[in-house]
Amino acid sequence: MSDTARAVPPAAADPRSAPALPLTVLPARHPWRWVATAVVAVLAAMAVNALVTNPAWEWPTVAQFLFSATILEAMWLTVRLTLVGTAIGLALGTVLALMRMSRNPLLKGVSFTYTSVFRSVPLILQLLFWYNLAILYEVVGFGIPFGPQFWTFPTQNLVGPLTAAFLGLGLHQAAYFAEIVRSGFLAVDPGQREAAAALGIPQVRQFWRIQLPQALRIIVPTTGNEVIGLLKGTSVVYVMALPELFYQVQVVYNRTGRVIPLLLVAAVWYVVLTTVLSVLQWLVERHYGWGSSRADTPPPFLQLLRSARAARARRRGATR
């Protein structure tokens, strides 16, 4: 053996035999995230300070009217308009979506025409049509089509202001719900239905176990947004002098002259109702989102609460 081969140490000849050095894991730094958090925190503190310290908001007046019987009755009417409008819209919208996906050209054409017309005409105009239906048809009859009628009712008695509001909101919303439901079912890969048919799974089970759960993951978030929009859109029924929340607030501040506090009362109740609907939407999304990343996405306020709890737990662990 030569002298050069004797000079090479065994560790250099085989690097895998060298002892492994301990690795130090450093946490990732996010300086700009902390800067953005500080800026947003300062702006939020300024907004809260402007709301609390400015006497022009008249918070004692807000507290006086926030739970008054008049405002609570108006708020309950707003909730009823939202619930009934959503129920009519979802039921009719689902039927319209199925008609649009049908292979029958008549059903498809009727669904397309309904959706186009009701999405094109403003909601306030539709409400006025339903409110004045008695001018067009004095009597509403039930019987054989183009034949004798067995029961007839005066339209003025059958379609009052509240019924006209329910019909106007529900029929208008059905056009939007139809497109939401249709988009949800179209998003499901048709190959899955073909594979289920090849495996001999019945069509009813294909719909309930394969198509519907996947479609609902897409339908539920958009439907939640539409319901929240409908809640705020109920204020349009003021044209029929229905005492919903916004209309009643206007009546009160015209009588008392307290414009800003009464508007703030309406805003507070709209925020509360919208928050409740958002929480319900998150629960439904989580139910139908099992198995996907959507199920593990809590709302921002819950994320903030969990982060605060985690930081408190880390601080307690560090002090022990």
Explain what the structure shows.
Pfam families: BPD_transp_1. It is found in: Cell membrane. The chain is mostly helical and 320 residues long. The protein has 15 helices and two strands. It has helices at residues 3-7, 10-13, 31-53, 59-66, 69-100, 105-120, 123-131, 133-136, 155-158, 161-186, 190-198, 203-233, 245-256, 259-288, 300-319; strands at 139-143, 149-154. Strands 1-2 form a two-stranded antiparallel ribbon. It is flat and about 100 Å long. The relative contact order is 0.10. Mean pLDDT is 85; it is low at 1-5.
How would the blueprint of this fold be written?
Layout: H1 3-7, H2 10-13, H3 31-53, H4 59-66, H5 69-100, H6 105-120, H7 123-131, H8 133-136, E1 139-143, E2 149-154, H9 155-158, H10 161-186, H11 190-198, H12 203-233, H13 245-256, H14 259-288, H15 300-319
Subcellular location: Cell membrane
Protein name: Amino acid ABC transporter permease
Pfam family, one: BPD_transp_1
